[in-house]
Amino acid sequence: MVPAPFTFFTRLHENGVTRLGQARDHGGMSGPYVIRGSVSLPEAELMWRFSRSSGPGGQHVNTSDTQVELRFDLANTEALPAVWKERALERLAGRLVDGVVSVRASEHRSQWRNREAAAVRLASLLAEASAPPPRPRRATRIPRGINERRLREKKQRSETKRGRSGRDWG
User: Fold this and answer.
1) Is residue 98 a part of any domain in this protein?
2) Model confidence over 42-89: pLDDT tens digits?
3) Structural domain tally of the chain?
4) β-strand 39-41 against 6-13: which pairing, if any?
5) Contacts of 50 (CB under 8 A, 6+ apart)
6) Three-state DSSP class for 21?
7) How far apart (Å, rounded) are the C-alpha atoms in residues 15 and 157?
8) Distance CA 152, CA 147 (A)
């Protein structure tokens, strides 16, 4: 009997996307890959490709397709709001091939764990790329009192050091 696949629920964190939990599912990997808020990637727009991966696993590696490549057509998706999509296309321009962003995962011995890693990686990449730009820094002036105190202390230190030289002892 083949074990049922998992669906993975994710949440946006300050540093990216983290996995919240797992729920057994009796269909395909049809989990919501949340980018931010209520925006998620539909399973129908995700393209999965599996191949043999290198690394740990012994003879198991030679017989199973555990490496996962997850591709998402960013240019033609309707799942993201237009503003987010525009931002993501601009920021990921160097990484896109014909408008498609791809993520690869092969660090685990299990295909399911690699699928999870690739999905979380893609969701965090898109969350970071579609995030609004930071607010511009407001320039502030240094108060006059602070500057004057710094110059006064500097002059006092200078006088102290000048008093140490043996020139005045004649």
Assistant:
1) yes
2) 888 888 888 887 766 666 666 777 888 999 988 888 888 888 889 888
3) 1
4) unpaired
5) 65, 66, 67, 68, 69, 111
6) strand
7) 46
8) 9
Write the DSSP string, 94-163: TT-BTTEEEEEE-SSSSHHHHHHHHHHHHHHHHHHHHSPPPPPPPP-PPPHHHHHHHHHHHHHHHHHHHH
How far is C-alpha 56 from the chain's CA centre?
26
Q: Which residue in this structure is represented by tokens 């083949």?
A: 2
Taking the C-alpha atoms of residue 35 and residue 155, their distance in angstroms, rounded to an integer, is 57
The reply to whether 126 falls in a domain is: yes
- Of 79, 124, 78, 71, nearest to 96 by C-alpha is 71
- Pull the structure tokens for residue 163: 């008093």
* E-assigned strand segments in 31-83: 33-36, 39-41, 46-51, 67-73
Instruction: Specify the residue for token string 């931010």.
Output: 36
**pLDDT for res 79:** 84
Residue type, 97: V
- Identity of residue 42: P
Q: Is residue 56 part of a domain?
A: yes
- Cα 53 to chain centroid distance, Å, stands at 24
